[in-house]
Amino acid sequence: MFKSQVAACRRALHVDRLMNDLPDIFTKWFADRRWSIHPHQAEMVARAREKSQVLIAPTGGGKTLAGFLPTLAELASGEHAGLHTIYVSPLKALAADIKRNLGTPIAEMELPIRVEDRTGDTSATMKRRQRVDPPHILLTTPESLALLLTYEDAPRIFADLSRVIIDEIHALAESKRGDQLMLCLAELQSLAPEMRRVGLSATVEDPSAIARFLARHPDPCPVIHADPGPSPDISMLRTEEMPPWSGGGAAYAIPRVLEEIKKHKTTLVFHNTRAQAEIFFHNLWLANDESLPIGIHHGSLAREQRERVEAAMVRGDLRAIVATGSLDLGIDWGDVDLVIQIGAPKNVKRLVQRIGRANHTYNAPSKAILVPANRFEVVECIAALEAVRDADLDGDPRGPGPRDVLCQHILIHACRGPFDARALWQTLTSAGGYADLSEEAFNDCLDMVATGGYALRAYDRWQRLKQRSDGLWELRDPRATKQIRMNLGTIQDTDTLKVRLKNRGGGRPLGEIEEGFAATLTQGDTFLIGGRVVRYEGLREMTVEVTRRADKPPKIATFMGTKFATSTQLSARILRLLGQEAWPELPRHTAEWLALQRRVSKMPTGDRLLIESFPHDGRHHTCVYGFAGRNAMQTLGLLVTERMEAAGLEPRGFVATDYAVLIWGLNEIPDPGPLFDGKNLREAFETWLSGNAVMKRTFRASATIAGLLERNWGHQKRTGRQTSFSSDILYDTLTKYDPEHLMLQITRDEAMKGLVDFGRIEEMLARTAGRIDHVVLDRVTPLAAPLFLEVGKVPVHGEGRERLLEEEAARLMTSSGLDTLPKSAGAP
Amino acid sequence: MNEQRIEFSGEILALQASGSLFWPRMEMLIVSDLHLGKSERIARRGGSLLPPYETTETLTRLSDDIARLNPAHVLCLGDSFDDTRAALDLEDAHRATISSLQAGRRWLWVEGNHDPGPVDLGGEHHAEYRSDGLVFRHIAAKDTRAGEISGHFHPKATIRATSRPCFLCDATRLILPAFGCYTGGLRWTTPALRGLFDAHATAYLTGRKIIAVPVPKAA
């Protein structure tokens, strides 16, 4: 963490005045190591009395030391008793990392400071001891902090709390974990009014938004910027061989990627999805003639497996790691000198943060190479490079704090003891995201937590929270605290099953695959996990058993929630790039492809909606260039095909990418105008939304967070017992009998911004404002061609699903001979 | 509503896509595992406050089947209530619905493991019920002669990654799916369930239409 200091000491810094704020022992410690303090570190010390402050610094900028210096300085005298500083990081591993790194200055300066971590891995004995006798510095995660706040002795534990440091706040600010953390800070502040807040952030597009997120509303929150360092050395990989028309594998680039790995000390190879990382790693390994040590790291691998890779990385034993977002956060992995991004980055901010992983030496430029996985991604990569050069980061402003998290927080608060509703509302609205929450809206949430909030007042006797005669609210049954604690947190487990090798003394886990994917496997099927091909043998006690006997080409494991959509800003840049007269910056093959599109059809533009119709393979095809990102284009495909079905146009299926949706069917669409009319689309959306699978999935996630469902609802993994009924039934019942219920409103809000992403469709409708170019052609166009090769085609159901089931059943009946058994036919 | 007629132990039975069973010759409708009052029982025990509409929903579906088939007998094959207390706590409106369904027909409650005691509602109570060579009991007996109809297990079948409540049937036994709204299921290949049937058992999936499938080996 502190090695960047070495580089910095070569620079002349005029921070002597600021250094005066540090005790002499610190000045001496820096001097002994021939280090000098970075200006932003000195400024953090000088402004340590601010109620809140945010530090924006690139990776390797000594960010964490900057955050801790004031704490160390304040604790150096040994006068402070009790808990002084809480450090919160999104990753358990980061907390352990920091503990190790803080150990050095504390030991060398012999500071009287006790540092401990508290995460899900901490023993129960240690946790109890920490509540009685807290350390000076507690390193923890948002969930562990929230848990601490459920104890009735929280006021005593936090009474002396002086500072809270939130690391990687940019990452937390994008998720509900961040919302939960900010509600916890609001509570901490009411327990320790003098508490100061510090946020440490990577480069973001809107630092003031992070500041508003962190600060106690409406306190000001100054932003300190570290020197961003030299511009990154970033380029796109140009190959003689043309990238393929579609797909995300980038197998064509394997030889060149291997060359680059050989040329560098340590390379991180980032992928957008876990499945792609698996395939790429597999192919890389097959081509790895020199047996370079290369590892793979992603969130679906077993913890043991990930930890092995992490340890090897820290030791410097690995030349490359193929990874996904699980490596995105700021753990210090050693000397990475090259970052390779496979596939278009989809989001410029994430790209910049990933590039920051290379070259932790502060004043050397980070080096990164983008590898487009297909022809269209060449355009996307070039647009992203321009955005990086212009420091034009993207990000969607965060809406108000989600109410499901608020509901959970009310339960957390209730665990601590009886409370006054209005006082709690006042405390919680000091969190930036909830500043605009009206007392009425808060009371609606309280009502749902207390009674279920149903139109039918069914639970009078069994309310979860009861209002006492003195007006305070309390848990009806104090034993409920146990259940609330178990349910705490906002991270949703997707329904995954562990994968183990068969017959291995219990079998060590290789990782996890999604239940939905496991359901499609039959014995003998093969798939990739941890870069290895394994053979599916069967399911035992909800564990997928596999062997290494792989004799078929692998099916690819599918993982949810990893499909990023190209951001609005990047999409706009791509549209601008397409609009150019010529494309000297693009490789020739790509420029020629675009020129051909312009010749035979039209080029999409930002202010008009291009729709192409053409026959192919005996079917009518319609391609819509919406440039609204994958999720929104998928939603558009679902909506439009449903409307086509209603209009008798007999659609048969569609496929969506970040830039277009291709729909095919039996009939020609004479006039697509009405199909894409904003009003009609919105109406169709309303009807469609209520019965949608995405809504059901969102409902389960939000209802679990809000405490209406218990975690792992419907997935009690016990053998020989009935599983709980599906949360889908609850959703259907609620929709039918109580359509205005708060939980359904919350579900809707969440779905709009998540996978459904209707907001991006709105954005598309607004910029094209009904200006539709409908081009009718007699054959496939250059821009539409790649869509034919896309995987993930969605059949239009209608009667489809039922028919598939019947066909499958008939096949099974015939093959088993059961269809010949006597039985009479069904009645009408 | 779709149905599938099968021959079972010498009788013709009509499996309803809704999950109920109709015995045309006797004009008898059989439903199993209604689990009325489930959400309240969960709340009473300090669990989640689930949408309290499942009793209404289950009774509505039962009313639909009764209106459609107009049976002379209705037999509830056990676990009609989630527990005895749920039966006592039944709301007046639901009590009235059940009374009106009972009017003009014979109503039989077979005991289940969730609701063993008698309840203060109309109808007869039976530990098990025999009629014309068929025996109706809540839990399948280990040794039984052919013609046993039971419930209890809430069987669920999975084909093409789609899971549906189902009837399970061989020459000896027929097990009904749970008719209640908030009821989970037990996989059809679970040994405790699969082991009750011979190698040639058939599953009849409920839903929009009855779909017949052979039951795979135990897993």
CATH class assignment of chain B: Alpha Beta
Strand content of chain B: 25-35%
Number of helices of chain B: 5
The chain pair with the largest interface is: A-B, 59 and 51 residues
Helix content of chain A: 40-55%
Strands across the major sheet of chain A, in which order? 3-4-2-5-6-1-7
CATH architecture type of the domain at 39-225 in chain A:
3-Layer(aba) Sandwich
CATH class bucket of the domain at 39-225 in chain A: Alpha Beta
Radius of gyration of chain A: 28 Å
Q: Overall mean pLDDT score of chain A?
A: 84
- What profile does the largest beta sheet of chain A have? 7 strands, parallel
CATH topology of the domain at 39-225 in chain A: Rossmann fold
Count the domains of chain B: 1
Instruction: Specify the CATH architecture of chain B.
Output: 4-Layer Sandwich
Describe the overall structure:
The complex is a heterodimer of chains A (828) and B (219). Chain A is built from 32 helices and 26 strands. Chain A is of the alpha/beta class and 828 residues long. Chain A has a seven-stranded parallel sheet with strand order 3-4-2-5-6-1-7, sandwiched between helices. A six-stranded parallel sheet of chain A has the order 8-13-12-9-11-10, with helices on both faces. In chain A, helix 18 crosses helix 20 and helix 18 runs parallel beside helix 27. Chain A starts with a helix and ends in a 12-residue tail after the last helix. Chain B is of the alpha/beta class and 219 residues long. Chain B has a single domain, classed as 4-Layer Sandwich (Purple Acid Phosphatase, chain A, domain 2). In chain B, 20% of the residues lie in helices and 30% in strands. Chain B contains five helices and 16 strands. In chain B, strands 8, 9, 10, 11, 12, 13, 14, 15 and 16 form a nine-stranded mixed sheet that branches. Chain B has a seven-stranded mixed sheet with strand order 1-2-3-4-5-6-7, with helices on one face. In chain B, strand 2 and strand 3 form a beta hairpin. The model of chain B has no long low-confidence stretch (mean pLDDT 92). At the A-B interface, helix 28 and helix 32 of A face strand 1, helix 1, helix 2 and strand 16 of B.
